[in-house]
Amino acid sequence: MAAPRRVPFDHDAPLALAKYYRFQWEPAQDMHVLLYPEGMVKLPGSAGEIMKRVDGARTLNAIVADLEAAFPGAPDLRADVVDFLEVAHGNGWIRPATD
């Protein structure tokens, strides 16, 4: 299986969901998901917590700060958030809100 495609983005730009994606809690899956016309992306655990904060107003730094406040003591949180969001950007799930 190929490695996830990571696409860097401007860390100072607010992040938003890409067009045609909807983020929600899915009781049947017992986790957050991204819905789009062709299907669904399951977002277990920390992935859902990160995507909860992609609201069109928060930048990467604001997302990291909010997660650090919510989960004090989590090791290397920034690196994990950057990794996940670069993969999400590479998959077309998120975009800079200015686009």
User: Helicity, in percent?
Assistant: 25-40%
Overall SS class: alpha+beta
Number of helices: 3
Distance separating the two termini = 31 Å
The overall average pLDDT, rounded, is 93
Query: What is the element string, with H for helices and E for strands?
Result: EEEEHHHE
- Uncertain stretches: none
Strand runs, count: 5
For the report, how would you describe the main beta sheet? 3 strands, antiparallel
Describe the structure.
The chain has 99 residues and is α+β, with helices and mostly antiparallel strands. The protein has a domain of 51 residues. The chain is built from three helices and five strands.
Output the keywords:
99 residues; alpha+beta; 32% helix; 22% strand
Give me a quick take on this structure:
The chain has helices spanning 46-52, 60-70, 77-90, and strands at residues 15-17, 22-26, 31-36, 39-43, 94-96. The chain is of the alpha+beta class and 99 residues long. The strands form two sheets. It has a three-stranded antiparallel β-sheet. A two-stranded antiparallel ribbon has the order 1-5.
Secondary-structure blueprint of this entry?
Blueprint: E1 15-17, E2 22-26, E3 31-36, E4 39-43, H1 46-52, H2 60-70, H3 77-90, E5 94-96
Antiparallel strand pairs: 1-5, 2-3, 3-4
Helix pairs in contact: 2-3
